[in-house]
Amino acid sequence: xxxxxxxxxxxxxxxxxxxxxxxxxxxxxxxxxxxEQAYAEANKNGIEKLAGRFAAKEAVLKLMGTGWRGKIAWxxxxxxxxxSGQPEVTLGGEVKKIAGKLGIKHISISITHTANFAIASxxxxxxxxxxx
Length: 132
Fold this sequence. Notes:
The protein is α+β, with helices and mostly antiparallel strands. It has a single domain (3-131), classed as CATH 3.90.470.20.
């Protein structure tokens, strides 16, 4: 397993709240998958959860070296917690193609929150931990 790249991002909750106030459901549907939306809605701190996922998506796009542009959709990066509560990344669309070209086989992600901020760190690996 070799580390290919790292990305990190910090998001303040008021930024996400402002985007929702300004663009409503259109923003949420454009940025978050149905599963990510359901996760946020099931938690009393929904904005915190959305901000964490937003930061994670930004961190992944940073490690790809692309940022959000071209054919990349926000929903090409999905962050869902596994059964033990650890966030996991699933790639789709253009981001999955870019990851393949870069030799990325797995992305390990960590998300944390404070009272007003969410931060996410993403590390791209050449193969998953499951493969040894």
